[in-house]
Amino acid sequence: MAANLLRIATHEAENQLALSLRQAFLLLESNLRPPFPLTIPTSEEYQVTNELLEKLVDSARNQLLWVTGEMVDVSAVGFDALLVSLLRQVVGGDFTDGNLWLCFEVATLFLSKWDSLLEEEPMVLTSGLYAFLRLLADHCRVSSRNSKLEALVRLEIEFCLKMLREQFHLCLKVGRDVIRLLQDLHHMPEFQAVWRDLVLNPTVFGTSGFLGIAQFYSTRTSSRYFLLRIPPMMETHLRFLLTQVKLGGQKRHQAWFASKYLFSPDRETLICDIVRFICCTHHPTKEIIQSDIIPRWAVIGWLLKFCRKNYVEANAKLALFYNWLFFDERADKLMDIEPAVLLMVCSVPKYVEITNSLLEFLFLLVDNYDMEHKEMITRGVLSSFNCLISKGVIHTFDVLTSSGVIFPLLRERLATFLLGMKAGIAKELRPIGVSNQCLPALKFPNSSCIGTPTPSPKKQQMGVQESQIGSNSIDSVAHPRTLIEDLGSLVQNLVEAIKKSDEAGLSILQKILDLYVSIENLPASGPNSVRSLSAKISKDLEHKLFTPVQCFLDERYSGTEVESVTSIIIRKFVFSQKERTQEMLSCWSMDGFPVGPCLLSYASRLAYEANKLDNLGKSIVSDSLPKLKDSQVPLLKFHVKDCHNPLNSNQKCFETFDSLSELDRELVAKLIDDVFIAYKCFLSHLKTTFHNREGETTLSKLLLSDLISCSKWKGMRLKYLCQSLFSHLPDLSVGEEGIIRLLMSCLDDGDILDVKFDIGLRRYSLFGENTEAILSLIKTSLKWESLEQHKFWGLLGVELAVSGVRLEKLILNFFCSAEINDPSLCSTAVGGLLSICNSRAPTPELVGAVILLPNHVFQAFAAAVLSTWAHLNASLLFDSLAEFSEKHGSQNGESIFSNPTGVMVNHSAILWLLNYFDARGVNLSYVLGGS
Amino acid sequence: MEMLCLKDIAPAAQNNINTQFILLDKGRANLEGGQTKTCLALVADETAAVHFQFWGDECDAFKPGDIIRLSNGIFSYNRNSLVLRAGKKGSIEKVGEFTMAYVETPNMSEIKWVPDPNNSRTYVQEAVISAYSRVFPPVL
């Protein structure tokens, strides 16, 4: 009977608790028969759900759920703790069957035992409310729900609505986070009705004394609710991270944590739960705070980096600031609001974009979170600042109000805001910030504005009234006027900065680009449209923008190019991969700047450096980096560094504050590919935007024109361009006539030889595997300069030797084409084919093709080839001839050579064969079969 | 059963090491002598790190972050490198994950050991070859 309770993997130690349970079972087995003793289990005996549920075998899980129901029925002591423990085991963002099953079972339990729960342990219902509101937000976002998930969502809605409609006084006890969670659901019709009543009709909830949402706001949600969304094992790991792991040595633990809990995009939604847990539940001791243990703000900063979706990021920031909005020194805890301010302040030196985005978000919340309660929120944020200073968490806000790297408008806004604090006036209702001025004053209560930080697409499909408000609030967030104006003012400052120094100019440019990429929508016209901005920037930067790079692919390549205006713009383009950056580049390209050539040469330089690196050592591990830094890969080094820059948010790296340590071959290869892909995107954008009317242009033609421009730059080595192009953009370059002709005309013999080596080593292919395409290229090449043709045939010979192209097909088709009748035109080509054939083994197919060549001006070709083969590999030649003869022999077994059967055999070939055998006194038909 | 700290292990031809550590990093699995799969790894506890050699199905049973208990293990030279392993007489088991602090230096496999002049059956440390593992450099 004492079977295994847990699923144990190989080499996994037996669980001590499971072991003692089994022993206990053996001990108690005799007692498990009626009459039962009336002893009361202690809460420790519920440990099984906390620690083991995840691993329990299915039958034991089923029994556990069943027994829980029975315990509720008999009001067993501590059953509420058991239910809470089950709630915690349901993992957010986990759509596996086992997890959804558990969620369904627990929700069913909460609904079916409603009356007993209400009577015995009503507070456990509030735990259910918090957990299911939160889980519902995850579950209802899945667009393609199967019937199981659909049923679960219905169950969760039923439970939450029952709570809100029937036991509102209990909901009120949870406090402000109920509103935070409801806001994530306000696109669902069921909850829109609740919202309307909360705002317009608070008495309908039948709770005397409930006058409005502010009552939720003013109640701090108890820390135990946040634990409900943190499974026990995760809690253990988080607490370990925050109490045992030292700052600087946290990388491995962070990576393990991420790979265990945040491995899939669905799990992102856990981040706001973790942020809430860290801010409001895990309050470290003074000793920990003063030690070198990784602080809470650093962990939160690291977590924010995992947010890929905008609404997830906004929810995480809201979780971070939520208690700021309603902070009341008498009822709230300083430790809840401490991480946000430290994250802002500590990020200024190295990660100022985090500071900027958090400060921006905070003021967005002040202005728009709930305009009906704006005064309350302003007061809350002011008291937060006030308390943080007075309790000495930070000593001054100077770093935020006077640091040059903070956006000027944010700085001003903060300074003005803090004035309100100093003057003791908590009514900062009309700050000089512009955000609120662009919003019409809304008569309708602002429940919908609550959802503004994370407008979901569904919001726009709401009812009329809501949609009106919804769209207003969306606008206020999606067009953050302050950011756009910041961008405008930065652009205005650009020209001054450039005059001051190159560095100042570059730094402003960097900021402009960061901001430009991060703003969601820009106006289609006016001074802040893409068109005007790009024109203004190019005017200010004048000759610095997209200047032909000197010596880009040259050993003399200078480090200063690495940080040039052009390189900075290119990197931003590559890493952000946004339509907007494409547009700006296209604008500049149309204005005549050599954008394409610069992108191309940048990509090639990178590929060149990576190639060099590859030759340097087999694998690039961290300890080879010091060498690498000093060696000649300046551009790659910068590129990698920039890629790890947290600003370039599309390139999420697992490690947050990382430098070059993760560098390895695959990463480098991927980076290089990305740059070429970005270049290709640029070409496509250019083509569709500006060339579609002309219709004729192809990507390859655009590429060719860039290549031609590049090849004219001083110090440019076309060989390297060619090598990287054919390796990374084969679809645009392989077999392309224009590109190949350019190479033949520009590459010198040394370069051609290097390319031959590359082809021989199969690093890339110039001509591809398509016989028709190669044939047409050959025909085109007939008109080229003789020298070009010679180079062409040299390369083609090398490539055909290693490619899968059928040479016999090529020869036959070429000799059958009309062009062949003009000997003056074709001599180089035929010469090329001759040496190619001569260097090949006489396989049956090849011999067959030569024998069957038509009789024409190059009569001696077949004989010459056969003669060479006879000299080099006589036995294979005659085997092949025999095979050929057999294949084409007539029914009665006679050889086609002695008695032609309609197959046209090449005259020179047959003549040579006859002579050859005559000279040896052998009868040809005797040798070549017959019977 | 005496549990050793990693800093206290010394090479010996005996299967008598009982200890517990966290797995930091794993290399690629190799076929030793074309027969059995082996895999070199970096493990550590609060006192030291050491190279550990997984053998056979052990190679796939553990992932970085796992806390492992080694019973009757051996610390000895294998193909010129000094590794800790379970060996034929020992065993390893996963007993937890994540919740263990560790240091990456000293690395007991990166120490030059010489026979003890006073007792030729034991080894003593002569010199540090490398403070950190040269196979698994620290993650900075």
UniProtKB/TrEMBL annotation, chain A:
Keywords: Cytoplasm, Nucleus. GO terms for cellular component: cytoplasm; nucleus. The keyword Nucleus applies. It is found in: Cytoplasm; Nucleus. Residues 48-414 form the Integrator complex subunit 3 N-terminal domain. Its main location: cytoplasm. Pfam families: HEAT_Ints3_C, Ints3_N. Residues 690-884 form the Ints3-like C-terminal domain. It comes from the Eukaryota. Transmembrane segments: none annotated. Belongs to the Integrator subunit 3 family. This is Integrator complex subunit 3-like isoform X2. It comes from Punica granatum (Pomegranate).
UniProtKB/TrEMBL annotation, chain B:
GO terms for biological process: double-strand break repair via homologous recombination; mitotic G2/M transition checkpoint; response to ionizing radiation. It comes from the Eukaryota. Keywords: DNA-binding. Signal peptide: none annotated. GO terms for molecular function: DNA binding. GO terms for cellular component: chromosome; SOSS complex. This is SOSS complex subunit B1 isoform X2.
